[in-house]
Amino acid sequence: MEALVLGATGGIGGEVARLLVARGWRVKALHRSVRQGEGLEWITGDAMNRDDVVRAAQGVQLIVHAVNPPGYRNWGQLVLPMIDNTIAAARASGARILLPGTVYNYGPGVLPHIYEDAPQRPVTRKGAIRVEMERRLKDSGLPVLVVRAGDFFGPKAGNSWFAQGLVKPGKPVTVISNPSAPGVGHQWAYLPDVAETMVRLVELGDALPLFANYQMQGHWDADGMQMPAAIARAAGKPGLRAGAFPWWLTWVAAPFVPVFRELREMRYLWRQPVRMSNAWLLAVLGSEPHTPLDVAVSRTLQGLGCLPDQVSASPASPAMASAPVAAAIGTTRRGQ
Fold it and tell me: What SUPFAM superfamilies does the entry give (predicted)?
């Protein structure tokens, strides 16, 4: 079996790509510059160039569309053309499209319990674009798999609330910032579990519906305090308490910095509980891959270079001067 991964240098794209290789797939990855390694066949090209994507997808049975614009910039100009290119490539190759879904599709009206068939009425521009992406995929008549999960964390999660909002990569954990309002539950997803879930579903092949849509339960933090507590335990500082995320910064800078404006629009996801049902997933797989929270958090902090024996070997990203500021500024790469 062969797959093409768009966004293989990103968190979920990279995790899925590596797992597919481990499962015996031949995996091609599209990137704008010459790369090598990780058992992938790197192809130079751009997800914004339809010819590049169609060429790279020749002979594949799966296209993983895990590519996003950097730092929330130019979503309106980039996101939909990229999904159209993926649709064209899948039509030419006969491949199934795998899309990592998001909770942005849902507005406050369906919270706190989001079921798989909940109406998608987003209240943000980014959410509206995500809904349009899925509409185009469904209308294409191609085999499509959408898997939604909570906020990502993991050793190689890249741009995430965990890595840019709660802790400071490359530094010992001395401060934990919590975006949640007191007592508000939040859903998290450990990236290796997400990738395992996606690949297990892909392996079902034609047993899946033409447009398959599943959600993961992941790690449910019932009061918004379990994740910060797990970070403190993994860091060997069980008494360390989380401070509040400086949401005021997103309001002050929103008129000037697009990322701040986007974060402010998504605040509703932290002000009330957000919990997705995984009933459809359980009906198909029987169980959901689930790494214990303390193990997942410890591995994540190790990957981020936040534990004492790894700090010197894992320099912090220069863009991450402080955890709250890094979360607001955002350092997402395009993932190509």
Answer: NAD(P)-binding Rossmann-fold domains (SSF51735)
